[in-house]
Design brief:
This protein is α+β, with helices and mostly antiparallel strands. It has one domain (6-123): Aminopeptidase. It contains 5 helices and 7 strands, in the order βαααβββαβαββ. Strands 1-2-3-4-5-7-6 form a 7-stranded mixed β-sheet. α1 packs antiparallel against α2 and α1 (16-31) packs across α3.
Length: 168
């Protein structure tokens, strides 16, 4: 019997291609039928391996979760961008490859991202999710987030509501 290890660590430039793959698969799974196809494809195509390598080198905080040495998910974190919310930290993105969803990797990555924000002295945290992304809403509500604000994102003249979840 082989035991697979699960590790969460800060991303390195060598992870860029694997992160780009997670991004492509997870975004297609999460947003197909929600974000217009042309816009979604464009958004995914802009973030290939070179984009991720540059983001990691520019000191963006990107965490990866590995299972058996394979990158299965990523999170990007930093300071809260919404001035109207008092929480200081934000998880900008948290995605797991579709075949690894539902087994707890997202929860582990979420906890690690939250801990990393606290280590950086950021009090409280916010996460935004599209209202039509029921999996995200369920995940963040299940993680104890409080739905406190709404906003709108525009994709090809299509207005989509987004919801802010906060943790103190």
């Amino acid at each position: 019997m082989k035991t697979l290890s699960i590790d969460i660590r800060k991303a390195e430039p060598r992870d860029a291609s694997a992160i780009a793959d997670v991004h492509l698969l997870a975004w297609r799974g999460a947003y197909s039928g929600i974000i217009p196809h042309r816009t979604l494809t464009s958004m995914i195509n802009r973030r290939g391996a070179d984009w991720w390598a540059n983001a990691i080198r520019r000191a963006a905080t990107v965490l990866v979760v590995e299972i058996g040495g394979k990158v299965a998910g990523y999170a990007t974190i930093g300071k809260n961008r919404a001035r109207e919310l008092k929480q200081q930290g934000e998880i900008y993105e948290l995605y797991v490859r579709p075949e690894y969803q539902g087994i707890g990797l997202g929860s582990r990555l979420f906890s690690a991202a939250r801990a990393r924000l606290a280590e950086h002295g950021l009090k409280g945290m916010v996460v935004w999710a599209l209202e039509d992304n029921q999996n995200a809403l369920t995940f963040y509500a299940g993680a104890g987030g409080r739905d406190v604000a709404e906003g709108v994102e525009i994709f090809e003249q299509k207005a989509l509501k987004k919801v802010a979840f906060v943790w103190e």
